[in-house]
């Protein structure tokens, strides 16, 4: 069953965040992940949305998503994201 990772981020240091972005897509695709959406101005239809960036990723399975997230390559760049932003990341199941 596919899974989606949904990130809500507030970036407070764009220069440091650029270090994260530089290798992100290569590491994602090397781990069979798919970038579905990046939105710098998400529109809240209900409730509050305080983040300034939303990202949606897709993986074929929970195991694949966790493999990517915990991989040495991703964790090496995640420190740039942690230093440059705050946010929440959730994993949700797809239907297929």
What does this structure look like?
With 96 residues, this protein is an alpha+beta fold. It has three helices and four strands. It has a four-stranded antiparallel beta sheet with strand order 2-3-1-4. The protein is flat.
Question: Could you give a quick summary of the protein structure above?
Answer:
By secondary structure, the protein is an alpha+beta fold. It has helices spanning 14-30, 62-70, 72-84, and strands at residues 3-11, 34-39, 53-59, 85-93. The protein has 3 helices and 4 strands, in the order βαββααβ.
Q: Over all CA atoms, what is the radius of gyration? A: 13 Å
What percent strand? Answer: 25-35%
- Overall pLDDT confidence: 95
Judged by helices, strands and strand pairing, the structural class is alpha+beta
Tally of helical segments: 3
Most strands sheet: 4 strands, antiparallel
Shape: flat
Got a strand count?
4
Helix content: 40-55%
Oligomeric state, counting identical vs distinct chains: single chain
Could you state the order of secondary-structure elements as H and E?
EHEEHHE
Low-confidence stretches: none
Strand order of the largest sheet: 2-3-1-4
Cα end-to-end separation: 5 Å
């Amino acid at each position: 069953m596919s899974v989606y990772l949904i990130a809500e981020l507030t970036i407070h240091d764009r220069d440091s965040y650029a270090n994260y972005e530089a290798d992100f897509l290569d590491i994602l695709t090397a781990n069979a992940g798919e970038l579905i959406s990046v939105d710098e101005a998400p529109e809240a239809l209900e409730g509050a949305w305080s983040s300034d960036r939303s990202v949606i990723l897709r993986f074929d399975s929970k195991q694949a998503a966790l493999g990517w997230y915990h991989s040495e390559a991703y964790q090496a760049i995640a420190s740039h994201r942690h230093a440059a932003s705050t946010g929440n990341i959730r994993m949700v199941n797809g239907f297929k």
